[in-house]
Amino acid sequence: MAQLPDLLHRTLFRTISLLTPYGQSLVLRRYFDWWHRSPDPWLLASSPYEQRKYEETLKALPDRTYRTIVDVGCSEGVFTGMLAAARPDAEITGVDISETALTRARRNAPSVRFVQSDLFSLTGHYDLVVCSETLYYLGGRLEDASDRLCGLLGPEATLVSVHPWPEARRLNRFFEARLDPGGERIVEDTDRPFAISLYFGTGSRG
Question: Which SUPFAM superfamilies does the protein's record reference (predicted)?
Fold first, then answer.
């Protein structure tokens, strides 16, 4: 059962999603810039939970060649830097709505291209799309956000969605209807269980 802080958190972002797309983007940008007024506000670089999540996500990636990778909602680029180290031959793009976060990300992972954007403004096609703990910020625009992520998939591409469990079931439901399932790993032996869910563009499995 969801805890009260999580319920309040989700209610806040559902309310923000009632704004126009421009208004939602503006509020979220200011919100995350405010959070990033101090470095690493969520302890992404030091939290045992985050480190475990990163390690499990990297292990879950199918053994394929990824020429282009996008990390959506990359914050200060901690996991994006790990992706760059694990896949040195790939062209990696980190995307976040907060320019304050990206200023630090560019220092943390200088080999990565970082772009300030909201999800709905993203364009291009990628071999691997990573979306970790981002979807619940979109509130009532979850279906539109899922469509946009699916639209970023190139031929034979992989989408990785990493979100709290069991909430991941709700957040991933639109992927289930649009993409081929590639397996799911649920990690429960942490203080905050999470699911790593893989999806493939139609016809890309094999």
Answer: S-adenosyl-L-methionine-dependent methyltransferases (SSF53335)
Q: What is the CATH number of the domain that holds 46?
A: 3.40.50.150
Domain count for the chain, please give it: 1
Taking phi first (over 0 means left), then psi (-120 to 50 degrees means alpha), and beta for anything else, what does residue 121 get? alpha
**What letter represents residue 108's amino acid?**
N
Bridge partners (DSSP) listed for residue 124: none
Please enumerate in sequence order all residues whose Cβ is within 8 A of that of 134, keeping only pairs 6 or more positions apart, or say none. 72, 73, 119
DSSP-derived pairing of the beta strands 91-96 and 113-116: parallel
Domain membership flag for residue 99: yes
Q: Digits of tens for pLDDT over the chain (206 positions)?
A: 445 567 777 788 889 888 898 999 999 999 999 999 999 999 999 999 999 999 999 999 999 999 999 999 999 999 999 999 999 999 999 999 999 999 999 999 999 999 999 999 999 999 999 999 999 999 899 999 999 999 999 988 999 999 999 999 999 999 999 999 999 999 999 989 999 999 998 754 44
Residue 107 lies in a domain: yes
Instruction: Tell me the C-alpha distance between 93 and 117, whole Å.
Output: 12
With a threshold of 0.90, does the pTM exceed it? yes
